Here is the input.
Amino acid sequence: MFQKRQLSVLDWFGFHILMIIPLANIIIFLILLFSGETNKTLRSYLWFQVIIVIMVIVLYIFLLSQLPGIMGIIEDYLNAYPV
Here is the structure.
């Protein structure tokens, strides 16, 4: 289904429907990503999604590491102006 030279609208629709199914989507994603017969456009789209997920994870870790400092600033601000 995903080995054609050009994917039709129905192929893209089927791909997105498959990505909705829990757990099966991860398996299908990895099979399509590492299969040498997968359409080049679809494989590029899958690598783009991998890069976005990695960027979100790095951003999340960075923001979590900054949380104690931010909470300290908020605490200092609240202690400076007692009610």
Remarks:
- Residues 9-80 form one domain.
- The two ends are 66 Å apart (CA to CA).
- The chain has one domain: 9-80.
- The chain has three helices and no strands.
